[in-house]
């Protein structure tokens, strides 16, 4: 039934469930699966910070901002400058890890044609544009993501994608 399924992953448990369902659908329909992760910026969410530490993606002091007496291309970095640069490094490492992990999981679920894409920009717009560019006929996401705002039924990214996408969207609880 589906030919191209796009699944959006942010490293959350919700997105893992979305990936599993998307992969099952893609395997069933012999569809192409496009896994999209949009890299974060700024403060690293707590659960991703934990992932970065557990997976040894970065040196421990990258996250704490400790050990600041170093230079970047000969320029001594301020505490603020160093931690901002390090946060970017953490985000890049996490983005690659999340995208590759999702591709591997999709293959494990029996998807033959799977491709991972890491984007940079406003998450909902990136997801919607990629869905259009790939001519996706289904977008799958978690209903919620990394935030812990228990009062909300739906996260802002999944909400926006549902409103903006040109194809059917499925949010997974
Ligand atoms: P909010 O971010 O609005 O505070 P939230 O984190 O709970 O709340 P969303 O961010 O909307 O909720 O996440 C819902 C789903 O959207 C995720 O499960 C994932 O499928 C997708 N998503 C969210 N952020 C990204 C991202 N950066 N890259 C790819 N997919 C994302
Ligand atoms: Mg979110």
Would you mind describing this structure in some detail?
This protein is an alpha/beta fold and 173 residues long. 47% of the residues lie in helices and 18% in strands. The protein has 6 helices and 7 strands, in the order βαβααββαβαβαβ. The protein has helices at 13-29, 46-54, 60-64, 79-108, 123-133, 156-164, and strands at 4-8, 32-38, 71-72, 75-76, 114-119, 138-142, 169-172. It has a 5-stranded parallel beta sheet with strand order 5-2-1-6-7, with helices on both faces. Strands 3-4 form a two-stranded antiparallel sheet. β6, α6 (156-164) and β7 (169-172) form a beta-alpha-beta unit. α5 runs parallel beside α6. The longest helix has 30 residues, at 79-108. It starts with a strand and ends with a strand. The mean pLDDT is 89. The site of magnesium ion has 6 residues, from loops.
Keywords:
single chain, 173 residues, alpha/beta, five-stranded parallel beta sheet, 6 helices, binds adenosine-5'-triphosphate, binds magnesium ion
Percent range for helical residues? 40-55%
Number of strands: 7
Structural class: alpha/beta
Count helical runs: 6
* Sheet of most strands: 5 strands, parallel
Topology:
Elements: E1 4-8, H1 13-29, E2 32-38, H2 46-54, H3 60-64, E3 71-72, E4 75-76, H4 79-108, E5 114-119, H5 123-133, E6 138-142, H6 156-164, E7 169-172
Parallel strand pairs: 1-2, 1-6, 2-5, 6-7
Antiparallel strand pairs: 3-4
Helix pairs in contact: 1-4, 5-6
Question: In short, what is this structure?
Answer:
With 173 residues, the protein is of the alpha/beta class.
């Amino acid at each position: 039934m589906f030919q191209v399924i796009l699944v959006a992953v942010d490293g959350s448990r919700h997105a893992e469930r979305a990936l599993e369902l998307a992969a099952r659908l893609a395997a069933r329909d012999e569809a192409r699966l496009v896994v999209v992760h949009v890299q974060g910026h700024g403060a690293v969410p707590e659960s991703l910070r934990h992932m970065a530490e557990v997976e040894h993606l970065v040196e421990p002091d990258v996250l704490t901002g400790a050990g600041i007496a170093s230079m970047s291309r000969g320029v001594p970095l301020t505490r603020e400058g160093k931690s901002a640069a390090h946060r970017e490094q953490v985000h890049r490492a996490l983005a690659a890890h999340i995208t590759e992990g999702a591709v591997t999981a999709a293959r494990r679920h029996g998807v033959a044609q799977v491709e991972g894409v890491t984007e940079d920009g406003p998450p909902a717009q990136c997801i919607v544009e990629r869905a259009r560019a790939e001519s996706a006929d289904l977008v799958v996401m978690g209903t919620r993501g990394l935030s812990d705002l228990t009062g909300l039924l739906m996260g802002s990214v999944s909400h926006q994608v549902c409103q903006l996408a040109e194809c059917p969207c499925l949010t997974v609880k």
